[in-house]
Specification:
By secondary structure, this protein is an alpha/beta fold. The protein has helices at residues 8-25, 282-291, 309-316, 336-354, 379-389, 409-420, 435-450; strands at 28-33, 38-41, 51-56, 63-65, 68-70, 79-89, 92-103, 109-111, 117-120, 130-133, 137-138, 144-147, 151-157, 163-173, 180-183, 188-192, 202-206, 210-211, 217-219, 228-237, 243-253, 269-275, 297-301, 320-325, 360-361, 393-394, 399-400, 425-431, 454-455. Strands 22, 23, 24, 27, 28 and 29 form a 6-stranded parallel sheet that branches. The protein has a 4-stranded mixed sheet with strand order 2-7-6-5, with no helix packed on it. It has a 4-stranded mixed sheet with strand order 9-14-13-12, with no helix packed on it. Strand 12 (144-147) and strand 13 (151-157) form a beta hairpin. Helix 3 packs across helix 4 and helix 6 packs parallel to helix 7. It is rod-shaped and about 180 Å long. The termini are far apart. Bound molecules: zinc ion. Zinc ion is lined by residues 275-276, 324, 328, 364.
Length: 471
């Protein structure tokens, strides 16, 4: 209508006027965002600024219009959120959008109790550090560790890509410390042969290599089926060649069976006992005993190894075989291990000669000896108990021939016969090493029989003859 009748330049002016009229007077629905798109840190408080709507034009009154908001921002979870604002007035509608991005920009924190490190060349090392992230929580398990020429670098990245790094300076040194071996269980112990040896275990650690238990070599293990005292040796060497050694003393004994106790003989009995052989005189002695059908007891040694076979002969001829000592060296009293090492070695010889172990024993010097105190205070008190715990029966004597103090057969005869007189059970100490003793045996047998004595060999059930223990 305005255009009707316009001509030339007047027409342009009219068009501008018309446009201004529409712009400033014609009402419309106006919806405006408060603020703009936003970035919000995860877990931070977020308050929506909203939007405003009205119906009107610049030159007319504004009629406020309600705004409906759609969409939410979850600040607990990073991501892009869109909020839409909508308004309606009569047939007019309007909408605007706001983008809110919840972001995690905080790097995790690495916590270590380390300010610097000294490591060995070639040493592997893993620091016990933890990492905590504001959003991911504990991410210690994701820490990457890199060892360089001069530092241990720890790094970790959270799920939003924020990286944390710690650099711990490292110095290197030569490994000049030997490893350590720790033995589990007793250092020295007894094992019953029938039960066998079970390694109680060990651990080896090195300052540089860490746990090197698997590299330990064990030697000197007990031989299966044999009594004896064994030194089990554990050795290990670290990567730099430093060595460590530990030893354990294992005493393998044969627990002797309990003997059923027969009735102790009530008849007066002489028990001839011969120590320190067998030797060059033993065969002659056996001949005499055979001739008189007398059974005696031999407390044997291995001092004269070439006569070992006489142990077998004595056994076959009905005599009792008992252990005295392998070496007859009093230094066996320096320790229980030394004593039993000697005893078990002799036991094996007895078994080799007779087919079985013996449960009879006589201590070198007797249980009352004091010479042992020079080697170890109190050892006889310990040993007399220990041999019995292992099933042995030890015998001393109550008649001394003193054949080690004289070479005169008559003196020996006197000592023995006067010692026997009046005793029901006479345990006579003699030595088959002494020819003078062998020379008196026939007369002693004749004397004893003439005085109503019988002869017997010792056994587990013979009433024990024990000296008082003095050490
Ligand atoms: Zn002796």
């Amino acid at each position: 209508m305005i255009v009707v009748g316009c001509i030339a330049g007047g027409c342009i002016l009219l068009a501008i006027l018309g446009f201004l009229l529409v712009k400033y007077i014609a009402p419309e629905l106006v919806l405006t965002l408060n603020g703009s798109d936003e970035y919000v840190e995860v877990f931070a408080d977020y308050t929506d600024k909203g939007a405003n709507a009205y119906y009107g034009a610049p030159m007319t009154p504004h009629i406020p219009v309600d705004v409906i908001k759609e969409g939410n921002v979850d600040t607990k979870h990073p991501g892009e959120y869109v909020i839409e604002y909508k308004s309606q007035y009569k047939k007019f509608t309007a909408s605007v959008r706001r983008k809110v991005v919840v972001v995690d920009t905080m790097a995790p924190v690495i916590t270590c109790d380390l300010s610097e490190l000294t490591l060995c060349y070639g040493q592997r090392y893993e620091a016990a550090c933890s990492a905590y992230d504001n959003y991911d929580g504990d991410i210690s398990g994701q820490i990457q560790q890199t060892l360089t020429d001069d530092a241990l670098i720890l790094s970790v990245t959270d799920s939003s890509g924020n990286e944390a790094k710690r650099v711990i300076p490292v110095k290197y040194k030569e490994d000049d410390e030997p490893p350590t071996i720790t033995l589990i269980g007793e250092k020295d112990f007894f094992v019953d042969l029938s039960e066998g040896y079970i390694e109680p275990g060990f651990q080896a650690k090195d300052n540089c290599d860490g746990d090197i238990t698997s590299k330990v070599k064990v030697t000197g293990l007990p031989v299966s089926g044999k009594t004896g005292v064994y030194t089990v040796t554990y050795t290990v060497s670290d990567a730099a060649g430093n060595q460590a050694e530990a030893v354990r003393t294992v005493m393998v004994f044969s627990k002797l069976p309990d003997s059923s106790r027969e009735e102790a003989p009530t008849a007066p009995t002489v028990y001839l006992t011969f120590d320190d052989g067998p030797c060059g005189y033993t065969a002659e002695l056996l001949d005499i005993l055979k001739e008189y059908n007398v059974k005696a007891t031999f407390f044997v040694t291995d001092q004269f190894s070439s006569y070992r076979h006489l142990i077998g002969r004595a056994h076959n001829e009905g005599h009792a075989i008992a252990i005295h000592t392998l070496t007859h060296d009093f230094s066996i009293y320096r320790s229980t291990a030394a004593y039993f090492e000697d005893l078990y070695a002799m036991q094996e010889i007895v078994k080799e000669q007779t087919g079985g172990y013996t449960d009879l024993v006589r201590f070198p010097g007797g249980s009352s000896n004091t010479v042992s105190a020079r080697y170890c205070e109190g050892i006889m008190t310990t040993l007399t108990r220990m041999v019995e715990e292992q099933g042995y029966h030890y015998f001393d004597w109550n008649v001394a021939s003193n054949d080690t103090g004289t070479t005169d057969p008559d003196v020996i005869y006197q000592n023995v016969t006067s010692g026997i007189a009046g005793k029901t059970h006479a345990v006579v100490l003699m030595h088959d090493l002494k020819p003078a003793s062998i020379a008196t045996i026939e007369r002693i047998i004749q004397y004893a029989r003439a005085n109503g004595y019988r002869f017997d060999s010792l056994c587990a059930t013979t009433p024990p003859v024990h000296h008082p223990v003095n050490n």
